[in-house]
Amino acid sequence: MRINAHVLTGDGVEQIRCQKQSHLLETLDTIVLHATEGSNAMSSAQYLAHKDTPVSAHIVIARSGSVIQLLPFNVRACHAGRSEYGGRKNFNDFSIGIELDNAGPLHRRGDRFFSWFNREYTPDEVFTTIENGRAAYYHRYTQAQTERTAEVCSLLRQHYLLRHLVRHSDITTRKTDPGPAFPFEEVKAITGF
Fold first, then answer.
1. pTM of the entire structure?
2. Residue 35: its pLDDT value, please?
């Protein structure tokens, strides 16, 4: 993979046109990781790119490891919302938003697990943790997706001399993504953030 004119190119990368008006970023020093909490990468990318939705992102990384780019990396995306971390606010103004295809929190019915949109997931796709003394269930990320996320973050870090890698949940109390199923510390160690 390579970055040419703020666009990712290479095997497993495709572009779709984001129909939103935006402006160039003056500063760029952070990557924010998100979870789509949707049914698949392409439907999430199309939703984020649609002109009538208020949110956007730079790329979506599918469970297969393929990448869909919506906006050039030097253009502002509306992925962070009201945000604050480390004494800074408004992360949309200086960050790249990466969405990871993942159903997010799951709920259990007997021995079966379901997303908020009622898709069933097999037990091997479920990450279990303890929250507030109770079991909590999340959609597991794939190895291919985690590896591609680390690869993309490393490439972005080198190309733009980025200094920070954060989760959406780090910059706002309103969100929990990408959630406990994502191996954040592992990706940070691999990428050198």
1. 0.97
2. 98
